[in-house]
Write a structure and sequence with these properties.
four-stranded mixed sheet, 6 helices, alpha/beta, globular
């Protein structure tokens, strides 16, 4: 299993997937940039790390664009566990894709999906 394993879960289920590498190339992409890109195009973002909801700039981009995010709350798990969780959570996807954003849902073991807190603005970083 490689980096294409998680996108394949969604592609195999019939969803159109655009990875960050496909859109932006192989270089690093700031989270705010891909968040804005996905939000402006009414995409559902799939990510590994739920910390984006704690960073002021990323939180602001999620709210401004109405982005909907499905993420793993545990970034320490391996690819096999990631694909297993996302595959089990596919049953929830039709309802989630219709729900207006902004929101972040975490995917837990056995495909359990839980809405994550997003309504309180994190502290702004010092300038």
């Amino acid at each position: 299993m490689g980096l294409d394993a998680v996108p394949s879960v969604f592609r195999d289920a019939g969803y159109v997937v655009h990875t960050i590498q496909e859109v932006f190339g192989n270089g690093p992409v700031p989270d705010v940039e891909w968040i804005q890109y996905a939000g402006e195009r009414d995409m559902l973002a799939i990510c590994k790390d739920d910390r984006i909801r704690y960073n002021y700039l990323e939180w602001d981009a999620i709210h401004r664009t109405g982005l909907r995010v499905l993420c793993l709350g545990d970034k320490q798990i391996g690819i096999a566990d990631m694909t297993s969780r996302f595959r089990a959570a596919l049953i929830h996807l039709p309802g989630l894709v219709r729900a207006p954003g902004p929101w972040v849902f975490g995917v837990h073991a056995h495909g359990r999906v839980q809405r994550m807190t997003l309504n309180q603005m994190p502290r702004k970083l010092p300038e």
